[in-house]
Amino acid sequence: MTTTDSADSAAHPRFAEALRALGLDDVLARTRRFPEATRTAAEAAAAIGCGLSQICKSLVFAADGVPVLVLMDGASRVDVERVRRELGAGKVGRADARVVRDTTGYAIGGVPPFGHRTRTRVLADRALLEHDLVWAAAGTPYTVFPMAPEDLAAHAGATVADVRERSA
After folding, report:
1. Mean pLDDT across the stretch 118-129?
2. Largest Cα–Cα distance of the chain, in whole Å?
3. What are phi and psi of 133, to 5 degrees?
4. What is the pTM assigned to this prediction?
5. What element of type H or E holds 146?
6. From 130's CA, which of 15, 72, 124, 136 has a CA 20 to 30 Å away?
7. Alpha-carbon distance 76 to 53, whole Å?
8. Band of the pLDDT at 167, cuts 50, 70, 90?
């Protein structure tokens, strides 16, 4: 797979602006665009050539009707009961595509971990921190960027928690 060379054309303009505002021009320069979609964690890992768990999924849930972002490694699934307990919510479920776009400003498959349209509560699963580097969506289903997971969680304003499903 090949990537384009121009970082400015890689990241979604809103996300590129967020990176610049945070002084993260170096991340913008390392943003990669692929000709095929990297919408799923498996597609992204294959395109990048990294392990599935090195992909950071940005998933929007509704906790008692309020959007919350969960950052999860690409090899794991979110345990909604653990999210519910962590948030002290009565009910947690996946947000629909309209809520995702209204909340973040991005379509499902391209939601970055920060740089959203609205301020949202964020949980980052602790397993993300097991890696030196993770890759996350840069605002489109074709773009990704690398970042140390601790930095990614900090820029997202995330609370680190154990919210992934446990293997049986």
Report:
1. 96
2. 47
3. -145, 140
4. 0.90
5. strand 143-147
6. 15
7. 7
8. confident
Which residue type sits at 100? V
Supply 87's token pair.
Answer: 């948030």
Asked if residue 133 lies in contact with residue 148, where contact means CB atoms within 8 angstroms, the answer is: yes
Which tokens hold the place of 110? 């391209």
Sign of the C-alpha dihedral computed for residues 86, 157, 92 and 143 taken in this order:
negative
| pLDDT tens digits, one per residue of 13-54 | 999 999 999 999 899 889 999 888 788 889 889 999 999 999
Single-letter residue type at 133 = L
Question: At residue 94, what is the residue type?
Answer: R
Mean pLDDT, rounded, of the chain: 91
- Cβ-contact 129, 106 below 8 angstroms: no
